[in-house]
G-protein coupled receptors family 1 profile domain-containing protein
Amino acid sequence: MINNSDGCGNAHAYPNDSELQRLAENCSQQVFPGGYFDGCSRVCVTDKYIMPLTEYEDLDSAVYGQIFPVLVLLACFANAAVALVLSKKHMITPTNVVLKYMAIAELLVGLVPLPWTLFFFSLGNFKETYRLELWWCYLRKYTMDVFPPVFHNIAMWLTVLLAAQRYVSISHPMHSRTACNVKNVRLATVVITIVSLLCGLPKSLDSDYETIHGWVYSGSSWEYASSCVMIHTGFLKTMGPMVFYNIYFWTRVIGFIIVPSFLLVLLNGLLIKGIRKAQRRKLRLLREKRAEEAQRQRDSNSTSLMLVAIVTIFLIVNLPQAIYICLLCVCETFSIKMSIFDGPFPTVFQLASNMIVMATYPINFGIYCFMSSSFRQTFSLIFCPGANQLQCDRRIIEPPSAVHSSRRSDICSHLVNVCTNSDEFMQVSHHCLHADYLTSERQSTQFTIVDKNEE
C-alpha cells in the first residue's frame, strides 16, 4: 500500500495526512449514517449517500451471476408457455384469463432484473468497478428496485383475484356468469395494474445519482470507494425523506402484503371448504345416476383443486418475505433495534427468498400439466404439432366405442379429408381436442383447466 498525503490517490495510495485525518474524524461525528468525508475534495458530505453495488461480493456473484440466470430461463419458458397456451381461443375463460396475466406478471418479475445481473455479475463487472459509469447506477435502480416490486404486487393481487373469482364461481355459480365474466376479469386486471404502478413508481422519484472514485472516510476508517452516490431529488426534499419513505413502504406493507395475504388465506380456506361441499354433491349425483352432471362437477372440482395448489404455493413462498418486510418497516418507523437485521442475515434471506420465488414458476407450469388435460393437449398442439397430427389421424381411423360412437362420429367424421392439411391442422386439432372432452369415460385423475360453467 502506497502512502499518499491527500485523498485523491488511486486505490493503492492510502491517505496519511494528519490534517486530513483530523478533518475526517470531525466529519464522522457530525454526519448521519450514510454520510461521509470526501478525502479528495476535503468536504464533509451530509446530503449524499454511497450506495454499494454489492454487499457480499462472492455470495451475490454466485447467486445472481450463476443461479439466477438459470432460474430466469426456466421461468421464462414456463410462464411464456402458460401465457401462450391460455391465449388460445378455446382456452379463454375467466379463470384462464387471470392465470395468463399472472404468468405475464411473474415472467416480468424475473426478466426485468436480468440485464443488470448478467452485466454486473455474470460478465464479471463487479470486479471492475473502476470502470463504473453513471448509467450503471440507473440500470441497477430501475431493474432491481423500481420495477420488480411493481410486477410482484400485480402478481399478488392477481392471485387474490383468481381465488376470489373461483370462490364466487363455485359458491354462487349463477351470479358468477355475469359478475366474473371475461370482460370484468380483464377490467379488474387493468385496475390492479394501474394502482400497482401508481403506488410503486414514486420510488423512481426519490433519488438521482453521481459516481465517486476516491478515498472516503466513513464510520471510523478510510476506504476506497468506486461506487454510486445517491442524491435526494427536489421532490423528496420538499416532501421530506421520512414522510416519503413511511408513506411508500407502509402503503406497500398494508396494501400489497398484509391485506392480500389475509385475503388469500381466507379465500383459500373458503375454496377448500367449497371443494368438500362440491365433492359431497358429486357423490350424491352419482348415487342418483346423474352421470353427466357429476362429470361437470368433477371437472369444476379439479379446476378448484389446481387453483388451491397454486395459491398455497404462492402463500408459502411469499409469507416469510412479507413478515420480514413488515418487521423491517416497524423497526425503521419506530427506531426499534433487532439483531436479525444486523450482519449478513438480511442479504442472505432476501437472496434465498428471491430464488425460491423464481423456482416456483416452473412448479406452477408442472401443476398445469399434471392437473389439466386440456392444458397438456393444447401445449402439445402448439409445441409438438407432428405428434398431434399422428394422434388426430389415429383418432379418426380407429373405430369409436359403442357408447360414444354417435358423439365422436358427428364431430370427427368430417375431419378425414382435412387432418393432413397443415394450414388447417391447428383448427382441426382443436376439434379433436373437443371430441376428447366429450368422452365421459375419462379417468378421475384427468383434470381440466377449462371450467365449462364459466363459459
About this structure: The CA atoms of residues 84 and 235 lie 42 Å apart. The chain has three domains: 2-46, 57-376, 377-454.
